[in-house]
Write a structure and sequence with these properties.
With 309 residues, this protein is of the alpha/beta class. It has 2 domains: 2-43 and 147-288, Rossmann fold, CATH 3.40.50.1100; 46-143, 3-Layer(aba) Sandwich (Rossmann fold), CATH 3.40.50. 41% of the residues lie in helices and 17% in strands. The chain contains 12 helices and 10 strands. Helix 2 (46-59) packs across helix 6, helix 3 (72-84) packs parallel to helix 4 (99-107) and helix 6 (143-149) crosses helix 8. It starts with 17 loop residues before the first strand and ends with a helix.
């Protein structure tokens, strides 16, 4: 798998922890591990593929990388473009991305444009822009992104000491699902692949998977038809409950979309060993947390004890 990694451009992406989730394992009746992709340099799984895509773009003489994004791709593209000395142009749906992700892209010097439309409108424009000289699209439609992201499978096998029976992850645009399937092919393993998607795709509070028309839907449909993949549509309540459980039960604070794999596993009743890929850090979308529940107390021990009672 090392051949898919960036060299001079690397910020230390990959090598993320694989941790046991004992309490969730007991609840689900299987051996569950969490692959902590939210601990990559910009806080999401996107960095694996972006490091490869931007490095190869620079090697081809590209001056500007472009992407459409619900947030994490924007942050990653901006960061790696800055590292490579390239310009990054990011198109996001107006008012539909988490502030922390936009802040990351702005801080790295990207040209961030909010489109009066959907993610799909933004992606259409980026594909058109990517056809111009000096520009390259770095969304997951770029095969270099898939090439980099598939390395997660080799790490899972190495860290676990064997192939898992199940790999679960979120399904937004489908790029990461395609990359994991490619990684399984490369490693010659055939775990059950389980993905969770929002039933309310265009409006879900899990903003990282707020994509009405998945760019990789044809690949996903083939994987389903071949019996390799199960797609689980999830309600907003199911997504919220899984997201809250990861933080409160296992101490893993992720953004809401990252819990979709766990939510999907809860509905299916798998056994054996499962790995859930946690894709983005909770600090990427703090707006999803209701911080208004904090209790104000006086600066006295009695006041503190009364509140705790």
């Amino acid at each position: 798998m090392t051949g898919t990694r960036a060299t001079w451009l690397s910020l230390g992406e990959g090598g993320t922890p694989l941790i046991r989730a004992p309490r969730l394992s007991e609840e689900l009746g299987l051996e569950l591990h969490l692959k902590c992709e939210h601990l990559n340099p910009t806080g999401s799984f996107k960095d694996r593929g972006m490091a490869v895509a931007v490095e190869r773009a620079a090697g081809r003489g590209v001056q500007t990388v472009v992407c459409a994004s619900t947030g994490n791709t924007a942050a990653s593209a901006a960061t790696y473009a800055a590292r490579a000395g390239l310009r990054a142009v990011v198109l996001t749906p107006e008012g539909a991305t988490a502030g922390a992700k936009r802040a990351q892209a702005h801080a790295a010097g990207a040209h961030v444009l909010e489109v009066r439309g959907t993610f799909d409108d933004a992606l259409r424009l980026c594909r058109e822009l990517g056809e111009r000289d000096g520009f390259m699209l770095v969304n997951s439609l770029n095969p270099d992104r898939i090439d980099g992201q598939r390395s997660v499978v080799g790490e899972i096998i190495e860290q676990l000491g064997r192939a898992p029976d199940v790999i679960a992850l979120p399904y937004g645009g489908g790029g990461n699902v395609s990359a994991v399937a490619a990684g399984c092919d490369e490693a010659a393993i055939s775990p059950a692949l389980v993905v969770g998607e929002a039933k309310e795709r265009p409006t879900t509070f899990a903003s990282a998977i707020r994509i009405a028309e998945p760019a990789h839907h044809e690949r996903i449909e083939r994987l389903v038809a071949d019996g390799r993949l199960t797609v689980v549509p999830l309600s907003e309540r199911e997504l919220r409950e899984a997201w809250s459980t990861l933080a409160r039960v296992e101490g893993v604070f992720c953004e809401p979309a990252s819990a979709a794999g766990v939510a999907a596993l809860r509905t299916l009743g798998h056994t054996g060993t499962a790995v859930c890929i946690v894709t983005g850090h909770g600090l990427k979308d703090t707006g999803a947390v209701d911080a208004s529940a904090a209790t104000i107390v006086d600066a006295s021990l009695d006041s503190v004890l009364e509140a705790l009672a």
